[in-house]
Amino acid sequence: MLNRKIAPIGHALEEIKVPRVEEFILSSGIPVYYYSVDEQPVVKIELLFDSSLFHEFNPAAGTFVSKLFKEGTHSKKSKEINQLFAEWGAFVECSANHQYFTVNIYSMNRVLPKVLTLVSEILNEAIFPEEEIVKLRQQQISQHRINLKKTDFVAHQVYNENLFGLTSPYGKKIDLSDIEEISREEIVRYYNAIVQSRPFTVLIAGYVAKGVIKSMEDVFSAHQTIVGLTGDFKVHDFKVNNIIDNWEDAVQTSLRSGRMMPNRKDKDIHKIAVANEILGGYFGSRLMKNIREEKGYTYGIYSRINHLKHASYLTVSAEIIKESKEDALKEINKEIDILLNVPVPKDELEVVKNYMLGTFYNNLSSPFSVLSLFKMLHDSNLEYDYFTDRFRTIQNISSKDLIEIYNKYFDYRQFLSVMVG
Question: How far is the C-alpha of 17 from the C-alpha of 21, rounded, in Å?
Answer without folding.
Answer: 12
